[in-house]
Design brief:
2 helices; nine-stranded antiparallel sheet; Lipocalin; 177 residues; mainly beta; disordered N terminus
Length: 177
């Protein structure tokens, strides 16, 4: 569920979020299952997200004859580099990508669908996004290999406030029943 997009920049963190909260040892049962991400056009993706007790798999799991079985997917398992925490009805998935932590936020809807959130922005919109974000919280930057990385360090309540104020992009993941 990393979904890194080309030509996007992202706000990152120095530690798994929300800080001070205990990591979950497994993915809650109510989140487990199969999901289809919906694209910006409103059409479902051909890829599937499978959430298991220990992590996730994301990719194409189409019907293929066994002789041509070529599943193409990425996966992640809860560990010291993939940390899941919960706070105020949100699930926070922190992914370590040296030297920073990227954040994915999940909120389950009543119908079982998931709202999947990131702090990614297209390069063209990033400076405006960064300016607006800096009115809400201090944004630090560091240079690494000719790339500027941007970090924030919110407390748990401020993190939820940033979600509520629309600083996270949202994608719907439709539960497959």
């Amino acid at each position: 569920m990393i979904f890194l997009f080309a030509s996007c920049k992202e706000i990152s963190f120095r530690e798994p979020q929300p800080k001070g909260r205990r990591a979950l040892t497994s993915v809650p049962v109510k989140l487990q299952g199969k999901y289809l991400p919906f694209q910006e056009t409103g059409d479902p993706s051909k890829d599937t997200i499978i959430i298991t007790p220990t992590g996730y798999r994301f990719g194409y799991f189409g019907e293929v004859p066994p002789s041509k079985h070529t599943e193409s997917y990425e996966s992640g398992f809860l560990s010291d580099t993939l940390v899941m925490k919960s706070f105020r009805g949100y699930y926070f998935l922190s992914i370590y990508k040296e030297p920073e932590w990227l954040l994915r936020v999940i909120k389950q809807e009543r119908n079982g669908d998931l709202i999947y959130m990131t702090m990614e922005q297209e390069d063209a919109n990033f400076s405006d996004y960064l300016r607006k974000l800096s009115y809400e919280i201090a944004v630090d930057s560091i240079m690494l290999d000719d790339e500027t990385l941007y970090h924030i360090d919110p407390n748990p309540s401020k993190l939820v406030e940033l979600i509520d104020k629309g600083f996270f992009n949202q994608t719907i993941l439709k539960k497959i029943r």
